[in-house]
Design goal:
Layout: H1 24-39, H2 42-58, H3 63-100
């Protein structure tokens, strides 16, 4: 008679948990850039652009998000500068006309 020893199969119950993707700088860049559009706060757009570049360099998993933050920040900044320049061109003749003719 042969005796066989049966060893129970040991199953691993440990699960590996992947670290969450780090995208906080890129997300902050996009949020600040979007908020700067309706509020007209140029410093928010500038901070959004800077955070986008830092996030692009440091967070490889969120490059698309940081790219959108950078582009939105530049578009917001350019749009508000263009709108300010257009307002200045519109208002300057009235201001200089009143000054040249002694006021209203």
């Amino acid at each position: 008679m042969t005796t066989e020893t049966l060893t129970p199969a040991v199953e691993s119950t440990a699960t590996s948990v992947a670290a969450p993707a780090k995208n906080s700088l890129s997300l902050a860049s996009l949020i600040l850039s979007i908020v700067s559009i309706p509020t007209g706060l140029a410093p928010l757009a500038i901070v959004g652009i800077v955070l986008g570049f830092v996030g692009y360099r440091d967070e490889t998993s969120a490059r698309t998000l940081s790219t959108f933050g950078i582009l939105t920040g530049f578009l917001s900044l350019f749009g508000w500068v263009l709108l300010g320049f257009a307002a200045l061109l519109f208002a300057a003749p009235f201001a200089f006309g009143a000054w040249a003719f002694g006021g209203f």
